[in-house]
Design a protein that fits this description.
This protein is mainly α. It is built from 14 helices and six strands. The strands form three sheets. Strands 1-2 form a two-stranded antiparallel sheet. Its EC number is 1.3.1.21.
């Protein structure tokens, strides 16, 4: 289980794992309560908890109704059925550490031998024991949690926030429209580029434990859409000019993010025999030896967007997240504290960039 070895010190590893295992659901609930019932005020939420203690927290924990459960189950079943039965082109993922090349189809996906335990129960549960877990031969769990359920939920929730704001105020504010349109454009971009996603670190290296499944089922739909959750009860009128400026800037950032990934994907697909910005690409060729003693070669693109910085595609992604949050303006701190930019910048992308750099350096 070589890919599950610790990439940080044991203290940082266990602290981060235990924090996410225990704090992820309560943070999501407190975020929802603060946005919906505490006028977006963190101090008001903390005052409530000081007065009522643990029982107060238990009182605000939402209990889904039978209808809500039916909606969630039917939605999950619908997405699972689409994943299994809709026809799709054959897409190959990268070769795994065990020598497998996963194949993703609309109907059939093969099982994988990339599995194992590191001998630590907490790490096995958090990080996962399977790289490409499947139910039977056909149902890929990571595809379902990351894409079909998680990302599609990200697209559905902003629409429900628009509906809720209309019910509450009789209209949908331009700020909510900008937020929703940018998120829908981002999600559409993700699915347009989905075959490239199979070559990312999420799929190729990260196992499908708590980190993947819980994060994509709970954290992504709930926290990444928090600006829209805030705007439901705090509508902001931007005006036509400002709304258009923010919308155009956000769409431009999403396009640049897509074009960065498209350049790299085309470069890899053609083994460097392509044009980048009308010119032959510059590259780094690295030979390395795998854990099994096999010698392989990697090509790293160093021109186009990738000639500007090593992880340039993170820049427009962070900026896009900023532009779909800034319609909330700056009346409250909360949308910016939990939203996509802060999580990306402080946790996910710095860590991912370090892991990617370490992997390239080892080659």
């Amino acid at each position: 289980m070589g890919e599950s070895k610790m990439v940080h010190s044991p203290l940082v590893t266990y602290a981060s794992m235990l924090s996410l295992l225990t704090l992820c659901p309560p943070i999501v609930i407190l975020l929802w309560y603060t946005m919906v019932h505490a006028d977006g005020s963190i101090s008001q939420t903390l005052s409530y908890l000081r007065q009522h203690g643990l029982q107060g927290f238990l009182n605000i924990w939402p209990m889904p109704t039978a209808i809500a459960w039916k909606i969630i189950v039917c939605y999950a079943a619908f997405e699972a059925a689409l994943q299994l039965f809709l026809p799709g082109k054959r897409v190959e993922g990268p070769i795994s550490p065990a020598g497998n090349r996963p194949i993703y189809k609309g109907h059939v996906a093969p099982s994988s031998t990339d599995s194992g335990s590191c001998g630590n129960l907490i790490i096995d549960f958090y990080w996962g024991m399977e790289l490409y877990p499947r139910i039977g031969k056909n149902f890929d769990i990571k595809v379902f949690t990351n894409c079909r359920f998680g990302m599609m939920s990200w697209g559905v929730l902003p629409l429900t926030y628009c509906i809720k704001q209309y019910e509450e105020n009789g209209r949908v504010a331009d700020s909510m429209l900008v937020n929703t349109i940018l998120m829908l454009v981002y999600v559409t971009k993700f699915f347009w580029w989905e075959d490239g996603y199979w070559n990312t670190m999420d799929i190729a290296h990260d196992r499908a434990g708590f980190y993947i499944c819980w994060g994509c089922l709970v954290w992504v739909p709930s926290v990444y859409t928090s600006p829209g959750m805030y705007l439901v009860n705090h509508p902001v009128n931007l005006g036509v000019q400002l709304a258009i400026y923010i919308l155009v800037a956000g769409i431009l950032c999403i396009y640049i993010n897509y074009d960065c990934d498209r350049q790299r994907q085309e470069f890899r697909r053609t083994h460097g025999k392509c044009l980048v910005w009308g010119k032959a690409p510059s590259k780094i060729q690295a030979s390395y030896t795998t854990a099994t003693g096999e010698t392989k070669t990697s090509l790293l693109l160093t021109s186009g967007w990738w000639g500007l910085s090593r992880h340039f595609h993170y820049v427009p992604e962070i900026l896009a997240a900023f532009f779909w949050t800034v319609p909330a303006l700056f009346n409250h701190f909360l949308p910016y504290f939990f939203f996509y930019v802060v999580f990306l910048l402080t946790i996910l992308l710095f860590d991912r960039a370090k892991r990617d750099d370490d992997r390239c350096r080892s080659k």
